[in-house]
Amino acid sequence: MTDHPILITGGTGKVGGRTVSQLALKGVPVRVGSRSGDPCFDWRDPVTWDTALEGVKRAFIVPYDGELLTRPFVRRAKELGVERVVLLSGRGADVPGYASENSTAGRTHIDGEEAVRNCGLEWTIVRPAWFAQNFSEGFFRDAVLAGELRLPAGGGAVSFVDAEDIAAVAVAALTEDKHVGETYELSGPRALTLREVTDLISQATGRTVRYVPISHEEFVAELVSEGWPTAEAEDYADAIGPIRRNMDGYLSDGVQRALGRPARDVAQLLKDAAATGAWQA
Asked: Where is the NAD(P)-binding domain positioned along the sequence (predicted)?
C-alpha cells in the first residue's frame, strides 16, 4: 500500500489538511488534491481527476458540497484502479427530516453515501457532527472575534467533534483493513449549547463572547445585507436548523470504536485554540 500515494481530495481543508499531516507523520505517501496542488485537482473540472488518480489505490473523498460529483468521481476512480475509498459524509445523512429538501449539502451526502456503498470497492463512511474548529478556524470565527454569535439555533445542543479526531479516523480507515464496510458516526463526548460554548470561549480568552439566538428569517436578512446571495443565505440557515430542532446533540461511539480511545472534549480544544492565538485579530 505504501508504494502508492493516497489521494486526499479537499487536501487543504480543515479535515483534509489534518489527514494529510497525520498520514505524512506515519511515512505514508500522500497526494494533496486541491486546485493549487501538483497535479491540480478541481472537483468541477473532471479533466483533472485522471492525473490526480494516477497510481492511486486508496482515496479520501471530501465531497464538493452542492454538487452531485461523488458518484462520477468514484466510478472514474474504480476504472483507474483505485481499490478503497473513505468518504467524509455528514451528521444526519440517514435521519429523516434532518436536512431540508432544499439542502445542497444534504443531497451531496445522501447521493455520495449511496454511490460509495454500491461502487464495488472497499469503503468506509465517516459522519462527523459539527466541527469544534468552526469557532477557531471556520464559519463562526469572525463572530467570535466580534464578540457576538448570532445564529438561528435556539437553545439546541451540539456534540461538537475535534477535526483532528475526524482525520485520525480517516487515516485509520485508509491504512487499516478492519474498517472496511464501517460507517462511523463521530461526535465529541458531550453536547453543549452555543451559549455554553461561548461561555467557555469567554473563560479561555478573558474576553466576552455572547450567543444571541435569532430567527431563521432574521439570520437570512442579516446575511443578505452583508452581500450574501439569498439562496446561499437560506442554505446556511437551513444547515443551522437541526440544532434548533434538537437534532444535533446525538452522542456516538465512533471515535472510540475506530481508534480505541475517547473523543477529545470541546472545552480542552477551545483552551488550546486560545493558547495558540486562534482569536487574535
From this structure: 10-176
